[in-house]
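request received
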Amino acid sequence: MNKNIYELLGLLVALSFILALKGLSAPKSARRGNMIGAAGATLATVVVFFAPLGKDSMGMAKTHHNTLLILAAIAIGVLVGVPAARKIQMTQMPQLVALFNGVGGGAAALVATAEYLNLGKDASAAEVVATVFTVIVGCTSFSGSVITFLKLQELMTTRPVVFPGGRFVIAATLAGVLGTGAWTISSGGNTPLLVMGGLALLFGVLFVLPVGGADVPIVISLLNAFTGLTVAASGYVLQSTLLIVAGTLVGASGTILTRKMAEAMGRSLFGTLFGAFTAKPQEAGAAAETRSVKSGSPDDVAILLNYAQRVVVVPGFGLAVAQAQHTVRELADLLTAKGIDVAYGIHPVAGRMPGHMNVLLAEANVPYEQLVEMEEINPTFPQTDVVLVVGANDVVNPAAKTTPGCPIYGMPILDVAEAGNVIFLKRSMRPGFAGIENELLYDAKTTLLFGDAKDSLTKVVNALKAL
Amino acid sequence: MTSMAILTIFALSIFVGFEVVSKVSTTLHTPLMSGANAIHGIILVGAIMVADGATNGLETTLAILAVLLATINMVGGFVVTDRMLEMFKGKPKAKKEEAK
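response:
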């Protein structure tokens, strides 16, 4: 293929990615934006097989290698990736995104390593620096993403993992990574690069372990931006403008997105990132709770709802886990039919990630107008008779306002305590994802209905119909 | 390509990246992250280039593994983003749900 045409097509693909990100920023154009991005990526993948090849150092025209192997690897990748993306429950989607991000980072690190081996002594200083950067960040992103996956999948504890002297271990690992990086740059050779990659993998694990469950989305977003930058650095080594542009776009937009998420959650980005270096072991579980809570029957809840004028539903991840989206909509429809004003109060991070709950409720065909964002719903709580908290905890925990030093302190919350009555549908007294006790559960205006969210809601719906 | 040209492209891309997402609503944070995640799957192109030029067994193995991982990232990323966004489009009257 003609070199000019090849590069022109590359430019077209880069533009398609800009349009994709632009489209993804607005609800109306989001799906089209994603399609444009996918089309661009497909075009780029096809075109690269027809890339014009230069001449090798002997002046001989280069030839294509491994074409069949490459096609086979792509086929396997499609066979793994597409079903995973299609079959995944929407509730488990954040960890899948984390995993996809991790393999992307791993791929970048492998690309840089293979190209480094290929260039051998011919690599320029700048190329070695770019390689070192890609391998370090790619490996960190890979192992860090695997840990976030394990945390979100609850295959390991969601609480911050902190061990005595942990911060020194992390600092030492980081120093080791940078040291071996400098070693690779100064002396070249394969051993330093290998050691560096190993240490970077370890660093990724240590970096994410101390991050508490509530901060995990921020870390995923950050690792996502990191992976973008590694792609840009590989683009430099491979002399590919497309990779430079696409990687930088993701790196830059990912950084902004990470900051916006941190703002929405009221978290300091700095605190999240350097939590690893500052976290202290927390005393596990303070005094055992002996205070009593008021628990009610489905009938009690139905009566409370029946005589309300305004009800706000606060959905949380528990609702999604119980697959209760459809039942909660049935309840809301029933209440609306009785002339009761119903709205859903959506916390920016309800679910596991910003916007996750909107996706889950949209799946259950909840009317979009009923989903009210936090800033708009908070002033209406004093006029609300009943708040129904379904499987949420941290996002309504007043400790975020009243207890400096607790892991969610400073996070904006839904002020459900302002409402007349609060009903919690919970499986148990177990604290939320962030692992913090919720004072509101012991409040006089709070009623608890224990059990699986879907069962409980079904019982409430039946009780309400019987009234 | 000269270093200056690369630096120019890099700097301009940063600003474009900042600009395009500056007005995203909270609702779309998750799909946007996922979409950006799919876009960096374009490392697939780099992986193919390296595999294409690989001359020995080790290089080939690393590059082919990279092709595999990058494909999962790219294809899976776009598909899962589409699934998320599919749910945002209006509310169709037909209550047919093929979810699950």
